[in-house]
Amino acid sequence: MYQQQILSEKPASSHRGARKGWLAAAVALPMMITFGAYGVAEFGPQQAVAVVPVTESLPSPDLAARITDTPFWREETIRSGDTLGALIAKLGVDDDAAKQFIRTDPAAKPLYELHSGRVIRAQTTPDGRLLQLRYVTGAGSEITVRPSGTGFSVNEAPAELLRESEFRSGTITSSLFAATDRVGLPDEVTRQLVEIFEGEIDFHRRLQKGDRFGVVYETFSLDGQTVRTGRILAAEFVNAGRKLSAVWHETRPGEGAYYSLKGESLKKSFLQTPVEFSRISSGFSMRFHPILKEWRAHKGIDYAAPTGTRIRAAADGVITFAGRKGAYGNAVEIKHHGAYSTLYGHLNGFAAGIRNGQHVRQGDIIGFVGSTGRATGPHLHYEFKIAGNQVDPSKLNLPKSHTLDARQFARFRDQMQPLQGRLELMARIDLARAR
Question: In angstroms, rounded to a whole number, what is the distance separating the alpha carbons of residues 242 and 222?
Fold first, then answer.
């Protein structure tokens, strides 16, 4: 109504004024666009607007008092050379009782396992009294120190870590570990890579320059920092032009194995090499015994390795001998399924609990490389026997452990395809870089 009343009171001449106003606005529009200015065209008579300032008192909290009572969270990124005492000082902790507790209480010892790049946090009162101190250890546990009664207490619990996956790929030019170091693949993941393919590849003797690998593996991080690595999810290894692929498949909760893209288990009934693959023995020059420099097929295979390198059972079985055995020195013999048996000689010592009659599983540590008996240097003398006769195991078509049935393979295929896609993509990228 008020708007209608104002319009009805406008004289007829105001329409001509309005048309002039529109014309002026149309003329001004290009200028507004050109110069980036903004204007408002007003029409009709102007009316003054009275502005009356009003001041009203409102209740205001004592902000200074609130800030004074607010606890502070601070954090520090650990650098090489930092000490726990220095970090606590940087975190603003000015609490002698807390410092004394952290120095002397055995439960606080994990706090001293500092790792560069990790973060340590503290919550304090404004005057420096400790309310909380938190740190995630290398094992993935979060250590928390809090006031408790008249003193302090320590709580250790699994940290809430972010699970992600990473990909690394590389080409061997001298040794496997040199290649994995070059692309930043952790040693623990490299060890898993060897275990996955050791049924198909003799990593001690058969690696070649130009062999390639690709790995998708789990990482667990906190605040952007990797705390630990997990399981390999998928892997590829090209050895002497032969491409092998592996994908982890969980057959039941908490249990699983690695399978080829066809659903065949990569775990053979016998390991290709019973000597644990190590950083020291990974070079091409360490393929043969440094003196014999050849296979002795009529008796066994000699694996050169540093004293103390771990020796593993080649397959499930029962120990039939563990002790001193003439020229073999310290030796272990294992009876496996059927007519198969294996012998391990020149051991420096036996693993804990190794004795006659003991059942062992494939990969169990049974002893350590040495030079006892008739030996020219530290190495493992390994014999593979069928009905008591030594044979060359690399020339046998030993069976694999398991193949997925149709129903299991359907589930496996759905899980495998995206991981396989990542491996193939990175393989293409690596080949493009090499050109």
Answer: 39
What value, to the nearest 5°, has the Cα angle with vertex 143 and ends 140 and 148? 160
Q: Is residue 410 part of a domain?
A: yes
Write out the E strands in 141-269: 141-148, 151-158, 162-171, 212-222, 225-239, 242-252, 255-259
Domain CATH for 75: 3.10.450.350
Cα atoms in the Cβ-side hemisphere of radius 13 Å centred on 187: 5
Q: How far apart are CA 349 and CA 323, in angstroms?
A: 9
Our count of domains for the chain comes to: 3
376 assigned to some structural domain = yes
Stated pTM of the model: 0.61
* CA–CA dist 201, 43 (Å, integer): 89
Q: How many CA atoms lie within 13 A of 58 on its CB side?
A: 4
Partners of 265 in the β-ladder: 259
Contacts for 359 with CB less than 8 Å, ≥ 6 apart: 316, 317, 318, 319
| Structural domain of 323 | 270-399
User: Are 240 and 223 members of one domain?
Assistant: yes
On whether the CB atoms of residues 155 and 222 are closer than 8 A, the answer is no
Q: What is the pLDDT along the chain (435 residues), one digit of tens a residue?
A: 444 333 333 444 444 444 444 444 444 444 444 444 444 444 455 556 666 666 665 555 554 455 456 788 898 989 988 999 999 999 999 999 999 999 999 999 989 988 888 889 999 998 899 999 999 887 778 899 999 998 999 999 887 888 898 999 999 998 899 999 999 999 999 999 999 998 888 888 889 999 999 999 999 887 677 878 999 999 999 999 999 999 998 877 777 889 888 888 888 888 888 998 866 443 333 334 444 445 444 468 888 889 999 999 999 999 999 999 999 999 999 999 989 999 999 999 999 999 999 999 999 999 999 999 988 889 999 999 999 998 887 777 776 657 778 888 888 888 777 777 777 776 676 666 666
